[in-house]
Amino acid sequence: MSPELLGFGSLGLVLLLIAIRMPIGVALGVVAFLGFWFLRNERVAFAVMQNTPFEVAANWGLSAIPMFILMGAVAHSAGISEALFKAARLWLSSLPGGLAVATNMASAGFAAASGSSVATSATMGRLAIPEMLKAGYAPSLAAGVVASSGTLGALIPPSIMFVIYGVFAEVSITKLLIAGVLPGILTAAVYSAMIIARCKLNPKIAPPIGLGMDKDELWRERWRSLAPVWPLLVLIIGMIGGLYGGVFTPTEAGAAGAFLSCVIAAVQRRLTFEVIRTSVMEAVKTTAQLFFVAYGAVMYTKFLALVGVPAMMATMVGDWAVDPVLMLVAVSIIYLILGMFLDPLGVLLLTLPIVQPMFHALGLDPIWLGVIVVKYIEIGLLTPPVGFNAYVVKNVVGDRIPLETIFKGIGWFLACEAVIMFLILAFPQISLWLPNSMN
Q1: How many Cβ atoms sit within 10 Å of the Cβ of residue 113?
Q2: Mean pLDDT, residues 400-410 taken together
Q3: CA–centroid distance for 290 within its chain
Q4: Which string of b and e fits 327-359 if b means at least 16 CB within 10 Å?
Q5: Which one of 23, 94, 213, 258 is most buried, counting C-beta atoms within 10 A?
Q6: Is 182:371 a contact under the CB 8 Å cutoff?
Q7: 388 with 118: CB under 8 angstroms?
């Protein structure tokens, strides 16, 4: 058996192991271990298994991940997510589908403090879905907007996915984080426009709500609601501005964000010992889960490099893929299919060693590729049969909303994603204008 054929056969074995519910990090590591043993010997296989955890954990760029997670955990535990939703509800409730629009915009705000799609969906699901159901909103709209707007956590800085992509693709993490700003804003805007248009045409799915106060009192409450929110907005804008201006690195931004989120919570008298304990434990647990998948993925990447799969794919691109459009279409199909079945981090680390050389051979911008890949991975969080975000929402709502109703609501947002991805693919400057304008 040729090494290249062995490499492609190993991919089928990985998918088979994942299909039988083996954790993706274990599946990748086991296949890589067996591959090294088969091609070399058991000593080489054990050496790779022993060295890989240190190689991954010692990477300075990845140290931003626990800091970003801690920042989001403190923000959530200190009640900042509730303040965001309350402010958005007061300011946007007069629009058609106002509660859904408020949920979408609050998700965008919380995503900028958490960097995690799943965490954003879970947090906003607990806050917003009961409010929307109580107001008579269609369950499909209530669940769909929460699951879909959660994907903003992967685009708007700080994005854990961009950090991981930047480390393993050896691309500027700072530019990747800045590149996600405009696509994230575009996604939130298109979602809001769709919600408003749909609810305007069909008011039954989102009946108008009254806040039970006159105009003067409403405006007083609106301005008062910004008091608990503005420190977080200053933090977010300061982080993005600091990254854009080169004031600090992503790792320094993560540390500064985690520290300032604690300061904000302390000033608002929400930083208790329990908040600190819960936030630190959540950051440790989530980081450990991400790194465990990364260990297996890095081992598998080394195995693919040993058998020559990335080099072979790059050679194939040089021979026949002369049209970048066809390559983008093919990559889009691959990510959409894999996203239906696999964990987002696993999809990223599994495909990056193959896709990146192909794009490099075509001379396509790696920052643009990063936005495309992360965007497709997040779409995978919404597509059945797996659709991780749909199951997160299902776990929040329990038996109140059937799973098929959640996927039905997500369908409208997937239609929006088709428009968004067309714009990002057709106009690369949406992703590249900000990072290219950096000093």
Answers
A1: 30
A2: 91
A3: 13
A4: bbeebbeebeebbeebbbbbbbbbbbbbbbbbb
A5: 258
A6: no
A7: yes
Residue 172 near residue 249, CB atoms below 8 Å: no
Give strand ranges (E) for 52-211.
none
Strand ranges (E), 293-421: none
Q: How far apart are CA 341 and CA 380, in angstroms?
A: 8
- Preceding omega of 158 cis (within 30 degrees of 0): yes
* Contact present, 200 and 408 (Cβ < 8 Å): no
Question: What is the pLDDT, as a whole number, of residue 33?
Answer: 92
Q: Residue 23: what pLDDT? A: 80
pLDDT above 80 (res 415): yes
**Residue 158 · residue 64 · CB < 8 Å:** yes
Longest dimension (CA), the chain: 78
- The encoded tokens of residue 123 equal 């947090």
Rounded to whole angstroms, the Cα distance separating 388 from 340 reads 9
* Contact of 154 with 49, CB cutoff 8 Å: no
Tens-digit pLDDT profile for residues 343-398: 677 778 777 877 777 777 777 889 998 999 899 888 888 888 767 788 888 888 88
Distances (CA, A) of 216 to 209, 221, 222, 227: 18, 9, 10, 18
363: left (phi over 0), alpha (psi -120 to 50) or beta: left
Peptide bond into 324 cis (omega under 30): no
Exposed, middle or buried: residue 1 (CB in 10 Å: 0-12, 13-18, 19+)?
A: exposed
**Dist. CA 256–CA 67, nearest whole Å:** 8
Please, what is the average pLDDT of the chain? 84
Instruction: Tell me how crowded residue 90 is: count the other CB atoms within 10 A of its CB.
Output: 21
| Percent helix, percent strand, percent coil in the chain, to nearest 5 | 80, 0, 20
User: Within a 10 A sphere around the Cβ of 216, how many other Cβ atoms?
Assistant: 8
Crossing angle of helices 42-57 and 273-307, rounded to 10°: 140
For residues 159 and 69, give the distance between their C-alpha atoms in angstroms, rounded to a whole number. Answer: 10
CB 214 within 8 A of CB 222: no
> How far, CA to CA in Å, does 414 sit from each of 158, 195, 241?
23, 13, 31
DSSP state at residue 262? H
Tokens standing for residue 138: 């269609």
